[in-house]
TrEMBL record:
Identification of the protein by name: LysR family transcriptional regulator
Residues passing through the membrane, by range: none
Keyword Transcription regulation among record annotations: yes
Protein family according to the UniProt entry: Belongs to the LysR transcriptional regulatory family.
An annotated Gene Ontology molecular function: DNA-binding transcription factor activity
InterPro entries assigned: LysR_HTH_N, LysR_subst-bd, WH-like_DNA-bd_sf, WH_DNA-bd_sf
Organism of derivation: Herbidospora galbida
GO cellular component: a single term: protein-DNA complex
Keywords per UniProt: DNA-binding, Transcription, Transcription regulation
Length: 302
């Protein structure tokens, strides 16, 4: 036969009050019920915890030692309950996040940092995804993915849709224009981002130029946005980049909006509705309750 936490609670109350009636009132139970709890506890332990005298009740030597452990056990049980409650609310645990390191990921990462600051009991593990990834990896809870064009997003939230803009050297004749057309760049050399794992980036730039009526004179092919902007700043050419690239604030580069429709970059947070993780549920709740802003272009509601 085992005893329960309520037996320890009854014993601790009685040890502190040293009076059956007062201890029972403190526990909001009848005095006979408390007496039965103490008797059962002593029976299970095979020892006497109390000396019951006519005018007073006092602890035996065993009872004094047992009181220390009883209090410790109740405190541990209370702490365990608190951990369980926090875990149920998604305030403890681990969140595995995969993200694509593009210029449009900055607001998402800022939101992730805010989540971690507000829930320090949650461990956030970050995994970088290669450009060109189109779906959520199986071993992560949530993924931030950007892609050219639109998203079919049945499980997740589209965070932003942004257009392309022109990146020009600051001394370019059109650098101070409020808006230009892609065709205005027909005679300029182009610096194009071409990636082995995401050929769509280079193809999109070629496609926009072709639609505007010319074939771009690509004189520089690079594999990093930082190198692309550095080349533009050096006057080696112009570039068509996502609008969020302007947030990098590269010295020597002027960013100018493009007139008319352009290709777009969509960014989305993806998760699986079948995932029962309380931490994921908390993150999704916070994500839906908060606008992830900071990306130029249209912010699409959930």
């Amino acid at each position: 036969m085992n005893f329960e936490l309520r037996h320890l609670e009854g014993f601790v109350a009685l040890a502190e009050e040293l009076h059956f009636v007062r201890a029972a009132e403190r526990l909001h139970i009848a005095q006979p019920a408390l007496s039965q709890q103490i008797q059962k506890l002593e029976s299970v332990l095979g020892v006497e915890l109390l000396i019951r005298e006519k005018r007073r009740t006092r602890l035996t030597h065993v009872g004094e030692l047992f009181l220390v452990e009883a209090r410790r056990t109740l405190a541990q049980a209370k702490a365990a309950q608190a951990v369980a409650d926090r875990a149920r609310r998604g305030e403890l645990g681990r969140l595995r996040v995969a993200y694509m390191p593009t210029t449009s990921s900055a607001p998402f990462l800022a939101m992730l940092a805010d989540f971690r600051n507000r829930h320090p009991g949650v461990r956030v593990d970050l995994l970088e995804l290669p450009l060109g990834t189109t779906s959520q990896p199986p071993d992560v809870d949530v993924a931030f993915i950007s892609r050219i064009g639109s998203f079919d997003c049945p499980e997740g939230r589209i965070l932003s849709v942004e257009p392309f803009i022109a990146a020009l050297p600051v001394n370019h004749p059109l650098a101070g224009s409020p808006v230009i057309e892609i065709a205005d760049l027909a005679h300029d050399p182009f610096v194009v981002l071409e990636l082995d794992d995401c050929p769509q980036w280079g193809e999109t730039v070629h496609g926009m130029c072709t639609t505007a009526g010319f074939r771009p004179d690509v004189t520089h092919r690079v594999c990093q946005v930082s190198t692309q902007l550095m080349s533009v700043a050096a006057g080696l050419g112009v570039a068509l980049v996502p609008a969020s690239t302007e947030g990098l604030r590269r010295e020597g580069v002027a960013f100018v909006p493009l007139k008319g429709p352009t290709a777009t970059i969509s960014a989305a947070a993806l998760w699986r509705s079948s995932d029962s993780s309380p931490v994921l549920a908390r993150f999704v709740h916070d994500l839906r309750a908060k606008d992830v802003r900071g990306v130029p272009g249209e912010v699409v509601p959930a």
